[in-house]
Task: structure prediction
Amino acid sequence: MRKTQAGHRMGRSHRQRDVQHQSHRTEGRHVWKPVRRIMTGISLAFTFLESLSLAYSVQASSFDETPKPSLSMTSHVTSHVAADPHEAVAISAGYSSGITEAVRRVKPAVMGIVNYAQISNVFTQQTKVEPSGVGTGVLFYKDTRYGYVVTNNHVVEGAVKVNAVMESGKHVEAQVVGTDPYTDLAVIRLPLQDVRGISPITFCNSNDLVAGEPAIAIGTPMGLDFADSVTAGIVSAAKRIMPVSEPQTDTVLDYQTVIQTDAAINPGNSGGPLVNIRGQVMGINSSKIVAPEFEGMGFAIPSNEVVTIANQLMKTGHAIHPALGIEGYSLSTLPEQWWPDVPVDYGVWVKSATSPEARSAGLQQNDVIVGIDGHAVKTMADLRTHLFQTHPGDVATLSIYRGSRELKLKLQIGKMDTKLTTAPNGGSVTVDGDGEDDPAPDSAPGIGPGTFDGGAGQ
Result:
């Protein structure tokens, strides 16, 4: 059996989304609590505006409903490695021209998103609507009446009015169609006449992403003065697991799969596209790590998850997340002495069955899930990826090991209780793990001492 290496404990700290946003002033200094704190200094990608010197309060807006369209999914292409210096020069030129062409295809669909909040003067008790923050969005669908733009939930959260700023500089008032704090995605819509002549972006299949392929970020860093900024890098990790915590209690609700990139993601890039060399969107930029000991660690929501959630938001204004009803961890994150006696060194170890459906299906503690509906499951990221292709009420076939026996179980997919009505604000967790797996538990019940610090519900 393979000996696993213990992951590095990152410590309790915060993840902030890269956001340029109106901040609260106290004695001349800005005080702002991050929307979601998860790892060491992770910053929200939403830009703070510098327009108000008085304390204020924010009031939420309402949402409309729209029909559900179908979104196009296309394949990506990986890069070629040069065999000699002359070929390297040619590839470098080709890479640069590839970036230029990819940006040319996508940039017209990228726009700045301005959040207008209800501002209350604590001294005069008067209120007014003023710009509160700036993020980014991208046009991904058009019907006969509207153009639909996907962005981050934290970009539009609390807005009483939202404006989209086109490549031409034109400001267009948008309507919020739906939001999902859990995945940090939102959809807004614009009148069709304001997006005529603009082609919606297409999405690649994020399941096919590989570390090392080119990644291009387009957004509005530091506000509208730097709109349509382009940075380039690579996919650092195709499936990275980040915990999602409940804002008031720091309780870990689940773990979210994200794309890690070293393309520069700065305040204001939230909601902008992460693009491959063919001009297809591989993800929606959301956050980065900001700490002296870290550099070049940004994160994007994978395109396959964006497509699934965006369709739901356009239909109902909210998203429903499928769940197996288990608490589990990637087997590779467990110390070897805690491993169940199974003939594999991969899969998702079941700590407990947490739903009636999972218990009725026969899932037990120490089972190891190695497949779902014919798809291999080696890590929690794999399980999440394939689980998100199902819907509550579907019946999935799980391949599991129980000791040395391989079994097939039928399990009805349930609905996740996300427990989030707004974006997580101020939560933090401790992160363990070594690579693309989920954080490891502190102990395994009945196997080692100690207690679990949070769970990984699926």
